[in-house]
From TrEMBL:
Pfam family, one: DNA_mis_repair
Family: Belongs to the DNA mismatch repair MutL/HexB family.
Coiled coil: none
Originating species: Paeonia lactiflora (Chinese peony)
Subcellular location: Nucleus
Molecular functions (GO terms): ATP binding; ATP hydrolysis activity; ATP-dependent DNA damage sensor activity; mismatched DNA binding
Extent of Polar residues compositional bias: 138-148, 157-172
Protein name: MutL-like protein 1
Record key words, sorted: DNA damage, DNA repair, Nucleus
Biased composition (Basic and acidic residues): 173-182
One cellular component (GO) term of this entry: MutLalpha complex
A single BP term in Gene Ontology: mismatch repair
Span list, region Disordered: 133-182, 202-225
């Protein structure tokens, strides 16, 4: 860009007029050695700016870099405050002590990490949020002139006599069952309605799958609880902490869809909820494991699965780079040691979880 004293002019020449005219100046700073030391100034797009993807131009100590955590944090603020403008344009220049910047995060030194990064991001987030909330009140909307539609010839339509009011159709009352998007007992809003009709061969497979699901459900629901005092104490602790309102929501909700990687949308009556699927699943699995403790039913495998191979699969699953052909000797050693340990605990595993392990480690 042409050398200029104004950064807005530089942004205008590189990114265009539509970006430059929708920018707001933003500043944040902190000079507390116990928490964070930094100074930030820049520009962020307002509520009138709409784009398909986020653009973040970040300079730290006058060097063009990337900071994924900061970019994600600002994007979250936009999505929560201005959903329509949730893909913003951000220009930020941050100045902080050189020793507070870690440039060895990425091989090309393009990605950086900051000392007290969480504190700095939180302060920038709060400034961005307050700026966006103030800007939302001054939002502008483009007007579009609507051409009048040609009027029909007078006296030729019988419909006009039957329905003299042009708004007659709007006065009809909406049926009550259509006021709520879905009903937990009759999930009309789910995707089943859009699935193609299946051929007879598929129907046969479905009936087989239904039989399998039925047998799994029978395994899932043992009538009696474990007679171990420790398990009974843990179960009663769960029951005493049960929230009746939440229980009703989880029991009678309808799944709408995933909002992102963690949160799911659930509908209960006329309310829409965001549910943390990760924590909800953990709690559900924990409670189910307690309820079924020492009363699990075995699933018979046609060919017993060898423990060493299963453990190796699990260890390789944790590899960051699956294509890396490094020495598998440490993993093999871990698999052998774990197999021997599980073989020693075979009696306990059989009694508590109905997992049969033979002398060969299958």
């Amino acid at each position: 860009s042409v050398a200029t004293s104004l950064r807005v002019d530089a942004i205008r020449s590189v990114y265009g007029v539509s970006v430059a005219r929708n920018l707001m100046k933003i500043e944040a700073s902190d000079n507390d050695p116990t928490s964070s030391v930094f100074k930030m100034d820049g520009f962020i797009s307002n509520s009138n700016y709409v784009a398909k993807k986020i653009t973040m131009v970040l300079f730290i100590n006058d060097r063009l870099v990337e900071c994924t955590a900061l970019k994600r944090a600002v994007e979250i603020v936009y999505a929560a405050t201005l959903p329509k403008a949730s893909k913003p344009f951000i220009y930020m220049s941050i100045v902080l002590p050189f020793e507070h910047v870690d440039v060895n995060v990425h091989p090309t030194k393009r990605e950086v990490s900051l000392l007290n990064q969480e504190v700095i991001i939180e302060k920038i987030q709060s400034v961005v949020e307050s700026k966006l909330r103030d800007s939302n009140e001054a939002r502008t909307f483009q007007e579009q002139t609507v051409r009048p539609s040609p009027s029909p010839p007078v006296g030729t339509s019988k419909d006009s006599q039957l329905n003299p009011s042009p708004f007659g159709s709007r006065s009809q009352k909406v049926p009550e069952h259509k006021l709520v998007r879905t009903d937990s007992l009759d999930p009309a809003g789910r995707l089943h309605a859009y699935l193609r009709v299946k051929s007879p061969s598929h129907l046969e497979k479905d009936s087989d799958m239904t039989a399998v699901r039925s047998s799994v459900r029978q395994r899932r629901n043992p009538k009696e609880t474990a007679d171990l005092t420790s398990i009974q104490e843990l179960t009663s602790e769960i029951d005493s902490n049960c929230h009746s309102g939440l229980l009703d929501i989880v029991r009678h909700c309808t799944y709408v869809g995933m909002a992102d990687d963690v949160f799911a949308l659930l509908q209960h009556k006329t309310h829409l909820y965001l549910a943390d699927v990760v924590n909800l699943s953990k709690e559900l699995m924990y409670q189910q494991a307690l309820r079924r403790f020492s009363h699990f039913n075995a699933i018979q495998l046609s060919d017993p699965a060898p423990l060493p191979e299963l453990i190796m699969l699990a260890l390789k699953e944790e590899d960051i780079d699956p294509e890396c052909n490094e020495n598998d000797d440490p993993k093999t050693k871990i698999a052998e040691m774990t197999t021997e340990l599980l073989k020693k605990k075979a009696e306990l595993l059989d009694e508590y979880f109905c997992i049969h392990i033979d002398t060969h480690g299958n």
